[in-house]
Amino acid sequence: MATHPAIPDRLMELARAQAGVLLWDQIRHCGLSERTVHRLVHDGFWTRLARGVYLTHCLAPDWLSLAWAGYFVAGDEAAIGGQAALKLAHIIDDADLPIPIVLPHTSPHRVSTSWWSFTRTRVPFRTMGDLPRLRTERAIIDLCAADPDRSAHWVTLAAGSRKASVQRMREELDAMPQCAARRQLSELLADAGTGIHSPLELVYLRDVERAHGMAPGRRQVRSGSYIRDVYYDEGLIVELDGRTGHEGVGAFRDMDRDNYHTMQGRPTLRYGWEQCHGTPCRTFREVAEMRHSLGWTGDIKRCRRCR
């Protein structure tokens, strides 16, 4: 059986901080010779992931190890981008391979693999984190530009996470004048700035309130220890249930919140995707009628979909 060569403690501490991945320059700086590294790989103690990039065990690399390795392959000016950046920011739980890695346009070309997708950009970017990643706002705008049909999902997810600023997303968009979906994104960010935190809340704003000429209610209003999705000054509360966060323990939390509001004398209407997207006109009429019963004097207007 092969004997494991001695590894300096400071090198293993560095490896633990980098998901088990080390760069050759780091290894050499800690006094380990090229011959020793070759032996570690040959005897199956370490794994070579790329030229000059090593995994300090023989198991399959996990996602985070591959992210570190991809950054080392790309170089110091690179950043983890796309959904991978959101995973590192703890906004989403999963991100697929290949891991997107962004480089300045002046960087040497890198060949993409099944593990990493390298992209060069002329738009300057800033990084954050020990494993450098794009700022959340830049990653969101990049995702929206790549797939405009998913823009509402990404923007509202970021806004709802409270880990991204709508204003900074606007600034990132302003720095990308060639963005094909610029107008759509500008309108979306304007709506997100009113407190929209989910695609369902966006549909309610656009198809239920705005389409029928109803002034929007206030968003994300605190009531005791609860947050109301939409609150109208007459005392009506509208809760929007897109299922995510409204199942299991979340469902009981919804019950507690509704009961609390009822005890406070504030009626609550609850709507989901079918009511807001499928039958927005009926939903508007219900909201308008309830507001009228509470003293609202606004008009009920017809939209192009009303029958």
Portion of residues within helices: 40-55%
Strand content: 15-25%
CATH architecture of the largest domain: 3-Layer(aba) Sandwich
> Could you spell the SSE succession in H and E letters?
HEHHEEHEHEEEEHHHHHEEEHEHH
> What's the number of structural domains?
4
* Separation, N- and C-terminal Cα atoms: 81 Å
Question: What is the makeup of the main sheet?
Answer: 4 strands, mixed
Name the overall outline.
elongated
* Radius of gyration of CA atoms, rounded to a whole number: 26 Å
CATH topology of the largest domain: Endonuclease, Chain A
How many beta strands in the DSSP annotation? 12
**What's the CATH C level of the largest domain?**
Alpha Beta
Mean pLDDT: 92
Provide the low-confidence segments as ranges: 244-250
Order of strands, main sheet, comes to 9-10-11-12
Provide the structure class.
alpha+beta
Q: Could you give me the name of the CATH homologous superfamily of the largest domain?
A: VSR Endonuclease
Query: What is the tally of helical segments?
Result: 13
